[in-house]
Design a protein that fits this description.
- By secondary structure, the protein is mainly α.
- It has 10 helices and 2 strands.
- The chain has helices spanning 8-28, 32-42, 47-71, 77-100, 107-127, 139-152, 156-166, 171-197, 204-226, 229-252, and strands at residues 2-3, 6-7.
- A hairpin with a 2-residue loop joins β1 and β2.
- α1 runs parallel beside α9 (204-226).
- The radius of gyration is 17 Å and the shape is globular.
- The termini are far apart.
């Protein structure tokens, strides 16, 4: 069976990956870019093309996910305003850098930092020491998160979500706000990639990830709203540790 000349059997695994990755991302505020980019690079897609494809898909999935989080009242609009502008600026810079040089050399260092943050959040979740308070360092975090997201093919969620949680922000509000702000980031990054690389950067994998991601996106807001803060923090820490350590292993081998 074919769709627009493409075998359905060829893209079914990509649809499954897109669905699972977006379900995790929508519920925990991270992982779609990391999981999807790792998959594409592992099958031979160049890093810049992989990042371009993933961000094109995320332009649609984050729109659906953002609507879901807004509907479930998971968004802190004040925090959103402090994140989105520096995030977009960092994303444009990161996309440009990735199309000009190999940014992969810094990736193991960033992943090691994220895995350390993951273990710290895990310790806090197990001790239940998460005391909610307003985060202070937001704009620089958005700038760095946007840059690393574009340059590394994924990083907005892990960097921004984890650090806001370390600062004491509400897990539910952080996840909803970071997901909603990501829509503006991914649209900007995708436009930058198209301007510098052209449409030939996008592959058949883009279609499979897009279908699966859009199907999984509406469920994230519901999960984030229903799960209590402690298990939510625990799940975020585990996903961050697993994806970061796997990324380190892949980068070094």
């Amino acid at each position: 069976m074919e769709l627009w000349g493409i075998s359905i059997l060829d893209i079914l695994p990509l649809i499954a990956v897109g669905f699972a990755a977006q379900l995790v991302d929508g519920a925990l505020g991270m992982a779609f870019g990391v999981i999807s980019s790792t998959l594409l690079v592992s099958v031979g897609v160049p890093p810049a093309a992989a990042s371009a494809s993933v961000h094109t898909v995320e332009s649609f999935t984050t729109a659906v996910s953002g609507v879901s989080h807004v509907a479930h009242r998971n968004v802190d609009w004040k925090l959103f305003g402090r994140l989105v502008v520096p995030g977009v600026i960092g994303g444009v810079l990161g996309a440009y850098v990735l199309t000009q040089i190999d940014a992969g050399t810094a990736r193991p260092v960033v992943l090691a930092y994220l895995s350390a943050i993951g273990f710290y959040l895990l310790w806090r979740a197990l001790r239940h020491e998460h005391v909610e308070k307003s985060p202070k360092h937001v704009a620089p975090l958005g700038l760095v998160g946007g840059f690393l997201d574009a340059a590394g093919g994924g990083g907005w969620g892990p960097v921004v979500t984890s650090n806001l949680l370390v600062q004491g922000a509400s897990p539910r509000k952080v996840i909803g706000t970071v997901n909603t702000a990501e829509f503006f980031l991914t649209v900007t990054i995708s436009a930058t990639f198209i301007a510098t690389m052209g449409l030939e950067a996008f592959t058949i994998a883009t279609l499979g990830l897009l279908i699966g991601g859009v199907l999984g996106a509406p469920l994230g807001g519901f999960v984030a709203k229903r799960v209590p803060a402690k298990p939510l923090l625990l799940m975020v820490s585990v996903v961050l540790i697993v994806t970061s350590l796997y990324g380190i292993y892949s980068a070094l081998t």
